[in-house]
Specification:
With about 100 residues, the chain is of the alpha+beta class. It has a single domain, classed as NE1680-like fold (Roll), CATH 3.10.510.20. The chain contains three helices and four strands. The longest helix has 16 residues. The protein starts with a strand and ends with a helix. The relative contact order is 0.21.
Length: about 100
Amino acid sequence: MKKICSIYHSTREEGMYLYVLKAEGLKRVPEALLEIFGKPKHAMTLLLTPERKLARVEAANVMKDLDEKGFYLQMPPPQDDDEMTAIKYRNSFLSASK
């Protein structure tokens, strides 16, 4: 199974990318997400297969979201270890409150 997708980068958040099926464009992306994402800037067009190696995500996961939701949002990587420690600390309260 192959899919041709367009990849856009965010004008508001460095490292945030939006994958959509080339044939559909942005029509299935929720308006609220586009408001947060900013004006999408086309980065590249890519032929996806489940075996394709991508930098930060499994191609099969992207393809699944493209089928089910019509888009895949790739978030920026964490900035540093201090940020991850702070997130882990805040999340510890969530699991403790259950």
